Amino acid sequence: MATRVFSGREERLTSGEGAYAGSLHGLFLRGLSVSGDRECFRVDGHGTTYAEAHREALALAGALVEVCRGVPRTVAVLGSKSGEAYTGLLAALYLGARAVPLHPDFPSVRNRAVLEAAEADAVIADARGVAAYERIGMPGVPLVSAGQGPLPGTPLDAPRAVDPEDTAYILFTSGSTGRPKGVPTTHRAVDSYFRTLRGRYDFGPGDVFTQTFDLTFDCAMFDLFCAWGAGARVVPLPMRAYRALPEFLAEERVTVWFSTPGAIALAGRSGALAAGALDGLRWSLFAGEPLHRHDAEAWQAAAPHSTVENLYGPTELTITVTAHRLTAATPDERYVNGVVPIGPVYGTLDHVLLGPDGSTGGDEGELCVTGPQMFDGYLDPAENEGRFLEHDGRRWYRTGDRVRRWPDGEIAYLGRADDQVQVRGWRVELSEVSHAVRALDGVEDAVTVAVPADGSHELVAFYTGRASQSALLAKELNADLPKAMVPRLLTHLDEFPMNANRKIDRSALRSRARTLLDRGRSTPGRPDADLPRTTDGDPATAN
After folding, report:
1. Element (H, E) at 111
2. How many whole angstroms separate alpha carbon 98 and alpha carbon 226?
3. Model pTM?
4. What sign results for the dihedral spanned by CA atoms 241, 258, 185, 146?
5. How confident is the model at residue 5 (pLDDT cuts 50, 70, 90)?
6. Contacts within 8 Å (CB) and 24+ apart, 508-513
7. Can you tell me the distance from the alpha carbon of 420 to that of 209, in angstroms, rounded to the nearest whole number?
8. What is the rounded CA–CA span in Å between residue 110 and residue 136?
9. CB 447 within 8 A of CB 416
10. HSE-CB of 290 using CA atoms within 13 angstroms
11. What is the pLDDT, as a whole number, of residue 139?
């Protein structure tokens, strides 16, 4: 039994979380009970202890009660990867409110739409968030500025208890209609998830976690609450750190890395992936988009003492639902299109593969998952249409991802269900095209997008590495791909555009592809004019 000082008085916590067991903020309280005088996060060289963050969160929670004239139901956290945003998140959770992370750099129109959809009662913001709040222009939603001057109200005596079915946070993903789509996640779901992780990883008070994700990305919750539940420290990774990544990680004594796979290429361009350069890492985790084998192996060589894992999961299923541990024993055939397998589904969850004909007995199809990590439905019930499968008396979430399963339960990622497009009557998988482009001499990475055209699609591949003429690359692809699968354009980029979560911004690539194709149609020197032609006028890509 541990004793800590909470807001000037002593409380005793049993088994860390005590009365807060099963809640998301109970994980922070677990860390507080074992590491009260140690840092829970360090931002730009400034560390904050568990006890300090706890007191600040209680004070911020009291300020929210004051400005709302009562306990708010929903609190938006408008901030970057800052200490103020972290304590703001804790303050919302301490109140038993629904926390809604917002990014200060997102368009004001989007942030306003999120605040309205979530019916936010108040906003808590860091310095950048305060400036963004002024641009949003919602004076009816009061603001509490974290870390800037004295706070109104009286600090809470202690965090509020919550029901397992209460919503812990709401994250907004991109909706098919263009409107942000709210995904509420309950304390029940995150409790099940982090219990699974505690059985899988050996995180402890001596660990230091990176934070490469912004709070609007659910993987940020992994970093924060895995670290805090273990009494460990979180260090946000500024972009400048990539210029000297080995030095930054060594200085901060980082032991747990977690990012999207796109960070590997970024690190490689700065020379950070020399053999043994990242030898202080114990765990290297990747999620958010497909992890390519050559990237995973390059990282493993740079971090030889690290266990490398590929994690997978949509926000609707609470962060991740599978994990594959990189080993030399994985058969080559399981690296479909050069992508690392995503691993078996966690034992606490059930899954089926939905075939195109509606059957669920095969070993290839759309991954559907059910279990305690599954959310109950979108904030707007209209968004639920088509997202769930009713099967065997249970409700399953349809991930929209096509996978292949082996007899031992290992799963390979094949691509999005909407990754398949029709090109002049051919069914084309964009991931397969990208894999073929990636195999070309001098190409480092590739992404293929499809642009609708005359009832079909035109393909454009963007690639990094050594620049080459589109026609020459197309000729090389002729040996491996049918005519319809060879992109009309192969366009070199120094690097791929990234969104705020460091994922490749495919929407930006599609927009750029559409512009290039439109420009080519309207000008004599069209961008694919250097491609040799067949007698029907198409680029000469037939075998």
Report:
1. helix 108-118
2. 20
3. 0.83
4. negative
5. very low
6. 509/447, 509/449, 509/460, 509/462, 510/449, 510/450, 510/451, 512/462, 513/449, 513/451, 513/460, 513/462, 513/489
7. 37
8. 9
9. no
10. 28
11. 87
Provide the token pair at 365. 């199809």
State how far the Cα of 182 lies from the Cα of 235, in Å rounded to an integer.
28
Q: Over the Cα atoms of the chain, what is R_g?
A: 24
- Lowest average pLDDT, out of 125-129, 395-399, 509-513, 537-541, goes to 537-541
What one-letter code names the amino acid at 356? P
Residue 4 pLDDT grade (very low, low, confident, very high; cuts 50, 70, 90): very low
Using CA atoms, how far residue 428 sits from 263, 355, 453, 522, in Å, is 28, 18, 15, 27
Residues in Cβ contact with 192 at an 8 Å cutoff, skipping those fewer than 6 apart: 318, 348, 371, 372, 373
Assigned token pair, 28: 């922070």
What integer best gives the mean pLDDT of the chain? 89
| pLDDT per position as a tens digit, 466-509 | 999 988 999 999 877 777 789 999 999 999 998 766 678 888 99
From CA 157, how far away is CA 334, in angstroms rounded? 54
CA distance 364 to 33: 46
| Cα–Cα distance measured from residue 542 to residue 421, given in angstroms and rounded to the nearest whole number | 19
- Give yes or no for residue 375 having a pLDDT over 50: yes
Residue 248 phi, psi (nearest 5): -65, -45
Percent of the chain clearing pLDDT 90 (strictly above):
75
Backbone torsions φ then ψ of 153, nearest 5 degrees: 80, -175
The burial class, CB within 10 Å (0-12 / 13-18 / 19+), for 49 is middle
d(CA 121, CA 98): 10
Q: Which of 142, 126, 154, 147 is nearest to 62 (CA)?
A: 154
Q: Where are the alpha helices (H) located in 253-392, listed in sequence order? A: 262-269, 293-302
- Degrees, nearest 5: CA angle 285-199-320: 45
CA 88 remoteness from chain centre: 21
Say which residues have a Cβ less than 8 Å from residue 147's Cβ, sequence separation at least 6.
83, 84, 126, 127
What is the tally of helices (H) and strands (E) in the chain? Answer: 13, 26
Output the CA–CA distances (angstroms, integers) from residue 358 to 15, 73, 170, 368, in the order listed: 47, 40, 31, 12
